[in-house]
Amino acid sequence: MQTQPFFTNFDIKTYQTEFAQLLQTNRVKINTLLQSEEFTWDNLIHPMDELSNNLHIKWALLSHMHNVVDTEEVRNTYNNCLPLLTEYQSDLGQNKALYSAYQAISESNFFAEFTPEKRRTIANNLRDFHLCGVDLPEDKKITFRELEKKLAELTTRFEENVLDATHAWQKQITDIRLLAGLPEHVIAYAKNQAEQHGKDGWVLTLEMPCYLAVISYAENRELRQEIYTAFVTRASDLSDKKFDNSNIMQAILATRHELANLLDFSNYAELSLATKMLTQPSQVMKFLNELAALATPLAQKEFNSLQDFAVEVDAIDKLQPWDVAYYSEKLQKKLFDFNSEELRPYFPEAHVLKGLFSLVEQLYNIHIEPMHDIAAWHPDVKCFVIYNEKNHAIGYFYIDLYARPQKHGGAWMDDLCSRYQKLNGDLQLPVTFLTCNFTPPSKDQPSLLTHDDVLTLFHEFGHGLHHMLTKMDVLDISGISGVEWDAVELPSQFMENFCWEKSVLDKIACHYQTGEHLPEHLYNQLRASKNFQAAMQLVRQLEFALFDFRMHLEFKQDVESSFIQTILNNVRQQVCVVPVIASNRFQHSFSHIFAGGYAAGYYSYKWAEVLSSDVYELFAENGVISNEIGQRFLDTILSRGGSDNAMNLFKAFRGREPAVEALLKNSGLL
Question: Which domains does the chain have, with CATH numbers?
């Protein structure tokens, strides 16, 4: 029998009480489980999974609401419940009796009879017990729990400051001439914002669709400078002080470093790598530095060409940061005879989704259908079900695509639950949340995406497929669970490659007014532009990755308050080719590492791109939309979750270890 939970409009007023009761119930049940004289999978690990699953679903509901409907009531409830969850998880990870029970199973005579998936689950759990401080003396266990609680609170405050600072900034425009160059849909958005706030004219915001449009297309240089400066000083000492993340960042680093030291790691970078494919800091630094040495000279050439173009067009003798996107769009127009906005009419969101679904249906022998009358947190949210070739439901997903107030920026995939064989024999199916921040539809036209938006959508859907197409029934290795963090981006980055293929663009591109497919000349120009400024984009990612990793690698408890900025400046001297203004405080809103799961792991994007480029090369060699290769990818990687280490899964698909050359070739750098 198959069962699955869905999103429910829970009562926020009773949530905290219910959550606290669930934690207490779990504690009592765990103590009962530990009374057994002999421990087995069936009398310990499976029941523990049941408790973890129920708790995950309960927390996922609130955590998701905190991300997409961050009202004061939701935020207060989240902040009140987070310490309870952190304390529970710390107690669980440091439960010596529970650890000993898992260890006894791993040393038992019947352990060898377990499936490889069950053995890996137990090994991962034993590793995680150590990383939670189970071996520490009692006084240090207390310190560890206090640090974990403090870190959870700090990272939440960081993210909330970014959200609040983003939404606090507005720019009212009463002279439409200042909006010259902006796409019509952005002007309509600004008009709508003004109406919502009871103001005349137009209101610009720092929400990503608006910000990117202004920085890329506004002809007024002063306007570009103003919105750029507001964006890169968000949540810093140079904007509203009540949202300043300066001290919070320093405290986050100090707390992470102290946690690592407690576990006998020299720094947080070493601790981070304990659960990744690359296991040594020297491996990460070698990988990043070698890429930097290759890409930086090429990026400098690209920037010099852009500078020459700006001189030629507008006599701009020194490009500023707020000029780069603007003149890049103009240079792209000159070189390839189109700009990003000209493609937007060909990517109405509904048609892009239809084409995306058609692609994965062909690759993996599945089909996707909409669901109706399913509760959601906003009227724009849609829910879908995935069926396999036998017409059995295998997963569900919600899509929330548009930017709006009280919704955190960016794009991500998160899960409500995993595929899991429950204690009563029912099969729970995976349910995921796919979230983006695209331009919403207006009264005159549907939501129209840029090609970059399409790449983002495919990327997040790749994460979703990884979670939903799993065939694992064991909770800890199902879907994305148990996958090394520097391999988890493989399925998502892999999907981006399809967005450049003619056979795929024929499925997803259709003019919203005429129904015309993407014209041949536009496709050719888009394809030719694939690696436009590829080196500049690569060094930008390397700047983020090196900054993140070096910051966690080199941090010491007695560092000066300028440490973070000093590391960033040093990294920029190595790889940055675009001018940086002294007031740039991008790190104050770098949520991936200060509030997300990428601390000392941002390099994962580039490492996973090596894997994904190498995987896609085999598809390209076999006609791109290859059901045969798709099934092979499904069987060896997508459906396997965390059931084996990522290198073994990769080699099962490719027949060898990954080649960095695949990334360089895919980026046009070879």
Answer: 2-93+95-131 (1.20.1050.40), 169-234 (no CATH), 243-338+533-602 (1.10.1370.10), 345-524 (1.10.1370.40)
